[in-house]
Amino acid sequence: AQSVAQPEDQVNVAEGNPLTVKCTYSVSGNPYLFWYVQYPNRGLQFLLKYITGDNLVKGSYGFEAEFNKSQTSFHLKKPSALVSDSALYFCAVRDIAQGGKLIFGQGTELSVKP
Amino acid sequence: DGGITQSPKYLFRKEGQNVTLSCEQNLNHDAMYWYRQDPGQGLRLIYYSQIVNDFQKGDIAEGYSVSREKKESFPLTVTSAQKNPTAFYLCASSITSSGDEQYFGPGTRLTVT
Predict the structure, then answer these.
(1) Contact A51/B109, CB-based, under 8 Å?
(2) Other C-beta atoms within 10 Å of B72: how many?
């Protein structure tokens, strides 16, 4: 079965420092991986995706993610965090065999302090 | 939140009542999805539809029903059979059900007392 794990419930970063939000996956076949961000009481916003190609994927708002097949990881990164990046981040894998549903990790709360 | 609207934003119902949550998209997407979000549990799939007049159960379909009579609309009914209906409900759509990203609506927070 496809699954995604986000090992950290919360990540704390000082503004201006680099940030990493971790994600590991377990899939059969090629993975379709996504990162989404959610602000309080809002829907999810798409940040970036990996389907195939370069292992370093660039997305919205300066975020990027590195696909590592050997470590089955897809960590989200940003070189310099902003206070406005504080939100809930979800990693997801798309299950093509089941109607393209997204299988989500538990979410990681990112807190960026000034 | 793209071209997906959900209404209402907040909904309150008494236990034992059915309630219907609206989801409309103007993105011309074929596939639509309903997810439920509970604190600390991520999002779980309730129902999905890959095309008009067709839909499939997701992981937690019990106590819910849907219809897909029009491409742009995918309403979700929370029935009295749903044991714990209080949650945040999110609707999403994508161009197809393959590798495309899903776009989410703003969500409906349902409280049942």
Answers:
(1) no
(2) 18
Amino acid at A77: K
Q: How many residues are recorded in chain B?
A: 113
- Which of A46, A90, A101 lies at the smallest CB-CB distance from B45? A101
DSSP B100: S
Contact across the interface for A34 and B101, Cβ inside 8 Å: yes
Strands (E), A1-114: 3-5, 10-14, 19-21, 24-26, 33-38, 44-50, 56-58, 64-68, 73-78, 87-95, 101-104, 108-113
**Min Cα–Cα distance to chain A from B102, Å:** 8
Q: Which residues contact A61 (CB under 8 A, 6 or more apart)?
A: A47, A78, A85
Please indicate whether, in this complex, the C-beta atoms of B31 and A99 are within 8 angstroms of each other. Answer: yes
pLDDT in tens, B8-66: 999 999 999 999 999 999 999 999 999 999 987 789 999 999 999 999 999 999 999 99
- Describe the strand order of the beta sheet including B64-66 as a list of residue ranges: B4-7, B19-25, B76-78, B64-66
Smallest Cβ distance to B104: which of A43, A49, A99?
Answer: A43
What 3-state class would DSSP assign to A23?
A: coil
